[in-house]
Amino acid sequence: MGIPGGLAKETFLPLSALFVFGWWISEVRRDRLQLVRLAWMAALGVTCLATVTTVMSAVAGGLVWPWQFAAYMHAGRGFFMGLRGSVLDHTFWFEFIWLLPLGLVRVRRLPRPWVMASAVAFCGALVLGAFNNSGGNTTRPLFNVAAPMLSLSAAIFLSNPNGRPIQAVNAELVTPD
Q1: Which tops the pLDDT comparison, 17 or 75?
Q2: pLDDT tens digits, residue range 75-105?
Q3: Among 1, 17, 35, 150, which is most buried by a count of CB atoms within 10 Å?
Q4: With helix as H, strand as E and coil as C, how does the chain read?
Q5: What percent of the chain lies above the pLDDT cut of 70?
Q6: What does each C-alpha distance from 93 to 18, 57, 118, 127 come to in angstroms?
């Protein structure tokens, strides 16, 4: 997964790493560290890092590490100014003004690992957008990591707003006379 993801977009590296880390944290037990899963997470990070480094180096004509690219992309404005610009941008609110309130209402009905992974990746994307001072361009990765979960949660709420368990309906086939 790291190779096609790294080829698709350089932000796949941090967002996928944060997503799988959030999922792992939500499932880790005190009595079991689950080192096999940790090894798979490391393999994802290494393959993605190698892919992004190889592609950027091939384009630049010399060795370019992703953190060198990140330092180059850093806007030079303060982190909090970048965070403010990302959250107050109209594209952020265009996407999330309805999705956040409707989606957060029934988010507890979704699997905890998915919710935790989406939250960790969402926060990571927000931090990256603030670091880069990317303003409205932060909305796309935020939407990519949070929208599937929030949309399903919103659908659960809208289809059953009172929150009572849905009982099975016993419908008979109606045939025309």
Answers
A1: 17
A2: 677 888 888 988 899 989 988 898 999 999 9
A3: 150
A4: CHHHHHHHCCCHHHHHHHHHHHHHHHHCCCCCCCHHHHHHHHHHHHHHHHHHHHHHHHHHCCCCCHHHHHHHHCCCCCHHHHHHHHHHCHHHHHHHHHHHHHHHHCHHHCCHHHHHHHHHHHHHHHHHHHHHCCHHHHHHHHHHHHHHHHHHHHHHHHHCCCCCCCCCCCCCCCCCC
A5: 88
A6: 24, 36, 18, 17
- Which structure tokens are listed for 131? 């670091």
Q: Quote the tokens at residue 173.
A: 């086939």
Radius of gyration of the chain (CA): 20
| Dist. CA 74–CA 82, nearest whole Å | 10
Q: At what angle do helices 35-60 and 66-73 cross, to 10 degrees?
A: 70
Residues 6 or more apart in contact with residue 73 via CB below 8 angstroms:
132
**Ramachandran region, residue 32 (left: φ > 0; alpha: ψ -120 to 50; beta: rest):** beta
Residue 165 · residue 118 · CB < 8 Å: no
Q: How far apart are CA 84 and CA 105, in angstroms?
A: 25
